[in-house]
Amino acid sequence: MDKTPNTPANAEARQVYALRMRADNDRRAMETGRRRKAFFLTFGCQQNEADSEKLAGMAEEMGYDITGTPEDADLIVVNTCAVREHAEKKALSTVGQYKHLKAKNPELIIAMCGCMVSQAHRAEEIKNRYPYVDFVFGTGSLHRFPQLLCERREKNKRVYCPEEESPEVAEGIPIRRESGYRAWVSVMYGCNNFCSYCIVPYVRGRERSREPEEIVAEVRGLVAEGYRDITLLGQNVNSYGKGTAAGWDFADLLAELDRIDGDYRLRFMTSHPKDASRKLIDVIAASRHVARQFHLPLQSGSDRVLRLMNRKYDTAKYLETLDYLREKAPDVTVTTDIIVGFPTETEEDFEGTLGMLRRARFDMIFSFIYSPRKGTPAAAMEPVPPEVQHARFDRMLALQNGIGYEKNQALLGVPLRVLCDGPAKSNPALMCGRTEGNKLVFFEGDPADTGRFVLFRAARADAYGLWGEKLPDRN
After folding, report:
1. Which of 110, 131, 161 is the last residue of a domain?
2. What is the arrangement of strands in the sheet containing 109-114, beginning at the earlier edge strand?
3. What does the buried/exposed string (b/e) look like for 149-179 if buried means 16 or more CB atoms within 10 Å of the residue's CB?
4. Whether residue 196 sits in one domain with residue 296
5. Is residue 170 part of a domain?
6. Mean pLDDT, to the nearest integer, of 189-217?
């Protein structure tokens, strides 16, 4: 693959290439009577989803129509994840299935981007084993999408954009949001923590924060457009602020955003317990718009394992933070992440995790069996046998399901304000939505309520959701 020179991360440079591509697409549409179409497939986290919305926005800027089916596309972009092996294999398998589409349409261009391709060994694998992939670019090169596509079309050569050593924070990128009422807003990129199991610092680089005035302007615009649920994103969102001219921390940013008038909720993810300050918790407790929901990843209930993970806190410090949060915001919903079967984890270590679940009583956990990531310190540690990992995982879920069930039972009969997401995928006869605490609810209602706040009262609950009825609007 050809290497391309670095380009400054600014809107002017991007727009030059976007205009060249738009002119080419407009010319093609006049000749054929059909506009070129782009299809985007996203694997991974909310940050990847936010990145794909920017890619789609740039595609529209270049004159592409967006399609929901790869068979209709002239451009396919696969945005990849590297957090677990399964996500990488699924992305590669999916791209393999697109080979036949290129055989039918030789003008089809296929691109891969995101965290997986930011790993040198994966980029090399795509170069050698997937010759029908036209260009590859990493997470720090998102803004160069128009340039890379333009070069691929004009030079008719495969293009490889290596990860930039010091990626800039690019502003002014157009965004094609998937929802008209829920929005992702990236406030920072990268991570400095280097947890021993995590690939993120290697594929997303060091922490870079956006200037607060850019974030405030974006959120203010979303509220004015009627967005009801806005989530601030960062790999370690509550370490926001390093290197910004204003010198704000995340609590300062959240307090400023909360001053924006409107009927909306603010969320944020993902937090690191070592950066969950009392100042931040005090801002949340005093806020008008910050949702009473806090995702605080624990990862393990063993102090020995936490040290091996390089998490920079122990269980006592974690519980101190959690207790202060619940003291200041008693109605807060708390969720967490747990890794089961981390290398060298003993039965005693695992019992420590179960003990923390009993003590913390999380509303929900996002749990994973440890997946080794090439290049991370944990990958070289002594593994736990798979059968032990799976047995522990099942025991942990059984415990947490009981806790989640009890927590949700306490909400029966309580009026809750819910943002309606429309018909449920599992049962289109029911509407689904989310409470302020991000609890999933189901009720009979009107699809016209989609994107609106409605009152809801639960009559039945399990560990994962609530079922009930829509109540008359109090207004």
Report:
1. 161
2. 2-3, 159-161, 135-137, 109-114, 75-80, 37-42, 65-66
3. bbbbbeeeebbbbbbbeebebbeebbbbbee
4. yes
5. no
6. 94
Instruction: Let me know the angle formed at the C-alpha of 167 by 137 and 210, rounded to the nearest 5 degrees.
Output: 120
Q: pLDDT-derived band of residue 14, with 50, 70 and 90 as boundaries? A: confident
Give the whole-angstrom CA distance, residue 234 versus residue 187.
6
- Cα-based torsion angle of the residue sequence 79, 85, 87, 93 in order, rounded to the nearest 10 degrees: 90
Q: What is the pLDDT of residues 271-325, one digit of tens each?
A: 999 999 999 999 999 999 999 999 999 999 999 999 999 999 999 999 999 999 9
Are 123 and 202 contained in the same domain?
no
Same domain, 442 and 324: no
> Which of 359, 388, 409 is the last residue in one of the domains?
409
Q: No. of H helices and E strands in the chain?
A: 14, 20
Distance CA 360, CA 15 (A): 50
Distance CA 81, CA 115 (A): 5
Is residue 174 assigned to a domain?
no
Residues sharing a CB contact under 8 Å with residue 113, sequence separation 6 or more, in sequence order: 51, 55, 77, 78, 79, 80, 136, 137, 138, 139, 141, 142, 145
Model-wide pTM > 0.70: yes
Cα distances (Å, whole numbers) of residue 79 to 50, 137, 241, 346, 459 = 11, 10, 27, 36, 40
Q: Which two structure tokens, joined as six digits, stand for 119?
A: 């790993």
Its domain, for residue 421, covers: 415-471
- Whether residue 168 is contained in a domain is answered as no
Confidence of residue 10 (pLDDT cuts 50, 70, 90): low
